[in-house]
Amino acid sequence: MQILDGKLVSAAIKAQLADKVTELKALGQKVPHLAAILVGNNPASETYVASKVKSCAEIGYHSTLLRFDEKISEKHLLDNITLLNENADIDGILVQLPLPKHINEEVVINTIDPSKDVDGFHPVNVGKMVSGLPTFIPATPYGIMLMLEHYNVPTKGKHAVVIGRSHIVGTPVSILLSRNSNPGNCTVTLTHSHTPNLKELCLQADIIVAAIGRPNFVTADMVKEGAVIVDVGINRIEDASKKSGFRLVGDVDYNAVAEKCSFITPVPGGVGPMTIAALLKNTYHAAVGQKGNMN
Ligand code: NAD
């Protein structure tokens, strides 16, 4: 069994991007600038945004963090996004989800200029991704593909079972894995909460991508010998032995499943760091006016 080490691959991608920043500076060009919007004080969102901002600093990008009270009106938030759209110094905009219930996420995402939508959630960019056109690929699915590519995980002709059909993970991953590309060329089964025979399907899977949001949901009896396991889940479970009072676990029962599989991503240290690396790649592409197509 080989661990798909997201920290290691993400560090390699960050080092490449840092070199590109050095080149841009040497040419007298502006460095990429990411604007992140955080509404409210959701602890997980705070952590994600902080590590995105920190990663920007590590590789020489500029970043701007706009924080708003959770009672902010939708109009005020939209006005701020419009200002970022119009600000030529800002290359990429991300709005950390979820947003408070009184704000319509769809309206917010639709307000971001598609050419600055480095999360790849705008319908224009989703449409381009589905059509196989160069665009911003949503960061988590993009990070998963970069990880499979880095480790030369065989995907061609394989059966991939994706568990979870969210717009940010499951659905885009299913599209990318089925593409005529490398990684890709999988036969994909996209499963969800109404799939009656999940265990049976998982037992047929050469590759399982788990994006459900339920701790240890994928157990060893659901996994075929030699399968590849990509665990997207990030779940906080109580742990009195930790100073914080919790620890992070994935959607996969890691210890038992790891014994059976050929490759597996740990949590933490797997898909999470890759998501940030992919976001930074998208931001670079936005800054230099190229749309990445998984490269
Ligand atoms: P979501 O809640 O939007 O979607 C969950 C999906 O799981 C739904 O499509 C639902 O149909 C499916 N599901 C629920 N119960 C099921 C069942 N019994 N059988 C089969 N499918 C079932 O979640 P999301 O936003 O895609 O996130 C999933 C997990 O991934 C969460 O733990 C989240 O924190 C994590 N996540 C991690 C990263 C990262 O960078 N590592 C990024 C995004 C999300």
UniProtKB/TrEMBL annotation:
<dbReference type="GO" id="GO:0005829">
    <property type="term" value="C:cytosol"/>
</dbReference>
<keyword id="KW-0554">One-carbon metabolism</keyword>
<comment type="similarity">
    <text>Belongs to the tetrahydrofolate dehydrogenase/cyclohydrolase family.</text>
</comment>
<dbReference type="Pfam" id="PF00763">
    <property type="entry name" value="THF_DHG_CYH"/>
</dbReference>
<dbReference type="InterPro" id="IPR020867">
    <property type="entry name" value="THF_DH/CycHdrlase_CS"/>
</dbReference>
<keyword id="KW-0368">Histidine biosynthesis</keyword>
<feature type="binding site">
    <location>
        <begin position="164"/>
        <end position="166"/>
    </location>
    <ligand>
        <name>NADP(+)</name>
    </ligand>
</feature>
<keyword id="KW-0486">Methionine biosynthesis</keyword>
<comment type="function">
    <text>Catalyzes the oxidation of 5,10-methylenetetrahydrofolate to 5,10-methenyltetrahydrofolate and then the hydrolysis of 5,10-methenyltetrahydrofolate to 10-formyltetrahydrofolate.</text>
</comment>
<dbReference type="GO" id="GO:0006164">
    <property type="term" value="P:purine nucleotide biosynthetic process"/>
</dbReference>
<feature type="domain" description="Tetrahydrofolate dehydrogenase/cyclohydrolase NAD(P)-binding">
    <location>
        <begin position="138"/>
        <end position="288"/>
    </location>
</feature>
<dbReference type="GO" id="GO:0004488">
    <property type="term" value="F:methylenetetrahydrofolate dehydrogenase (NADP+) activity"/>
</dbReference>
<comment type="subunit">
    <text>Homodimer.</text>
</comment>
<dbReference type="GO" id="GO:0004477">
    <property type="term" value="F:methenyltetrahydrofolate cyclohydrolase activity"/>
</dbReference>
<comment type="pathway">
    <text>One-carbon metabolism; tetrahydrofolate interconversion.</text>
</comment>
<dbReference type="InterPro" id="IPR020630">
    <property type="entry name" value="THF_DH/CycHdrlase_cat_dom"/>
</dbReference>
<keyword id="KW-0521">NADP</keyword>
<dbReference type="InterPro" id="IPR000672">
    <property type="entry name" value="THF_DH/CycHdrlase"/>
</dbReference>
<dbReference type="InterPro" id="IPR046346">
    <property type="entry name" value="Aminoacid_DH-like_N_sf"/>
</dbReference>
<feature type="domain" description="Tetrahydrofolate dehydrogenase/cyclohydrolase catalytic">
    <location>
        <begin position="4"/>
        <end position="119"/>
    </location>
</feature>
<dbReference type="InterPro" id="IPR036291">
    <property type="entry name" value="NAD(P)-bd_dom_sf"/>
</dbReference>
<dbReference type="InterPro" id="IPR020631">
    <property type="entry name" value="THF_DH/CycHdrlase_NAD-bd_dom"/>
</dbReference>
<dbReference type="GO" id="GO:0000105">
    <property type="term" value="P:L-histidine biosynthetic process"/>
</dbReference>
<dbReference type="GO" id="GO:0035999">
    <property type="term" value="P:tetrahydrofolate interconversion"/>
</dbReference>
<keyword id="KW-0511">Multifunctional enzyme</keyword>
<keyword id="KW-0658">Purine biosynthesis</keyword>
<dbReference type="Pfam" id="PF02882">
    <property type="entry name" value="THF_DHG_CYH_C"/>
</dbReference>
<keyword id="KW-0028">Amino-acid biosynthesis</keyword>
<protein>
    <recommendedName>
        <fullName>Bifunctional protein FolD</fullName>
        <ecNumber>1.5.1.5</ecNumber>
        <ecNumber>3.5.4.9</ecNumber>
    </recommendedName>
</protein>
<keyword id="KW-0378">Hydrolase</keyword>
<feature type="binding site">
    <location>
        <position position="234"/>
    </location>
    <ligand>
        <name>NADP(+)</name>
    </ligand>
</feature>
<keyword id="KW-0560">Oxidoreductase</keyword>
<dbReference type="GO" id="GO:0009086">
    <property type="term" value="P:methionine biosynthetic process"/>
</dbReference>
